[in-house]
Design brief:
six-stranded mixed sheet, 2 helices, about 35% strand, Trna Endonuclease, Chain: A, domain 1, alpha+beta, three-stranded antiparallel sheet, about 140 residues
Length: about 140
């Protein structure tokens, strides 16, 4: 199994583990079919789109948490089509879960091109959105059992 396959498997397993937790906050979420127009988000229902990222770090290790800019671009498109939809990203870090609601406030995030070896044996430049830590909230601010 190559690095890309391992990363995809890791992400899918994390999505399966976190879905019951997210369902409690967002209602019943549907796993995204990777071959439809919702492909940039992991889950959705009629009110929400949710992206999940598993990070093997403690929150605060860096000044921000990041995700692929293509997801932000898709958010802008879907939000224009239906302004009532809400979009969230949830990061599962080593110490807790953290959330940010997508918005257009450029004070909350910055764009940066990061380079990664995505299993092809060479670095690829990928535009990313880095959300500043001070705008990211603990999951417990949104939901507590």
């Amino acid at each position: 199994m190559n690095k890309v396959q391992r990363d995809l498997k890791f992400g899918k397993e994390a999505e399966k583990r976190v879905k019951p937790i997210l369902d409690k906050l967002f209602g019943n979420l549907i796993f995204t079919d990777r071959y439809n127009d919702k492909e940039n988000f992991d889950f959705y229902n009629k009110h929400y789109y949710v992206e999940h990222k598993q990070r093997n770090i403690r929150f605060g290790r860096y000044d921000s948490l990041y995700f692929d800019k293509v997801k932000y671009t898709r958010y802008l498109q879907l939000k224009q089509q239906n302004p009532k939809l809400r979009f969230f990203i949830v990061w599962s870090c080593l110490d807790d879960r953290y959330m940010w609601e997508f918005n257009e406030n450029k004070d909350e995030f910055y764009e940066q091109v990061n380079t990664f070896d995505r299993g092809r044996g060479y670095d690829q430049a990928t535009p990313m959105i880095h959300v500043r830590n001070e705008y990211i909230s603990p999951y417990s601010d949104f939901y507590s059992e």
